[in-house]
Write a sequence for this structure.
């Protein structure tokens, strides 16, 4: 059974700092890995989708990498801002099974302070 | 802009009531999902559907049922609401295969 772990569970950084969020998974048989952002009391917003054949994806200040063989992904946030404060979730999409059921990590709660 | 729309942001219901949570997507996705999210427990899959009128149980289906009569609409039904069903409910949709999920904005349900 696929297990997805995110470390750290919570992180507080001063504004302007670059930071890395980690995601690890146990089964490398995946279509893709998706990073989401969730603000308190809101739904999930998709940030980046990395296909299993890709090594990284970039969107603005965000860069996500994927090392499928080692079961790891990282989300790099450059020049962090208070508006980046949220919970970040990673999820893997398995190759096998119906309906592409994602397995989610438990999330990293990020706080960017002034 | 493509989207998944959940009909209510906040809902307060009484114990024993029948509750309907509605989700509509406009992306022609074949798959739709209902999750609940609770502090410390993460996202847990309740039910999903991979086609019209098709449904499968997720990890925590007890106390819930679903309906998918049209491709764009997936309803979650609490037959007799209980206080332990107070939670954030999230709907999502996707194509099958090498695609991502799109989530709705969530419904915060409180059962009193």
């Amino acid at each position: 059974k696929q297990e997805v772990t995110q470390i750290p569970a919570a992180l507080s950084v001063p504004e302007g700092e670059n930071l890395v969020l980690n995601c690890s998974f146990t089964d490398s048989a995946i279509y893709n890995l998706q990073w989401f952002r969730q603000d308190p009391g809101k739904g999930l917003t998709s940030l980046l989708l990395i296909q299993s054949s890709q090594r990284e994806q970039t969107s603005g200040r965000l860069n996500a990498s994927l090392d499928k063989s080692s079961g790891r992904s990282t989300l790099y946030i450059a020049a962090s801002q208070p508006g980046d404060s949220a919970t970040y979730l990673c999820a893997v999409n398995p190759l096998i099974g119906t309906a592409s059921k994602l397995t989610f990590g438990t999330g990293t709660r990020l706080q960017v302070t002034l | 802009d493509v989207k998944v729309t959940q009909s209510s942001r906040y809902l307060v219901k009484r114990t024993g009531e029948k509750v309907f949570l509605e989700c509509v997507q406009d992306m022609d996705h074949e798959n739709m999902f209902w999750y609940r999210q609770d502090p410390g427990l993460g996202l847990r899959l309740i039910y999903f559907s991979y086609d019209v009128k098709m449904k499968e149980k997720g990890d925590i289906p007890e106390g819930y049922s679903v309906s998918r009569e049209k491709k764009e609409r997936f309803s979650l039904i609490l037959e007799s609401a209980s206080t332990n069903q107070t939670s954030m409910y999230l709907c999502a949709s996707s194509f099958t295969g090498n695609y991502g999920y799109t989530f709705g904005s969530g419904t915060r349900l409180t059962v009193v």
In short: The mean pLDDT of chain B is 94. The first strand of chain B starts at residue 4 and ends at 6. Residues 14 and 112 of chain B are 5 Å apart (CA to CA). Chain B is about 0% helix and 55% strand.
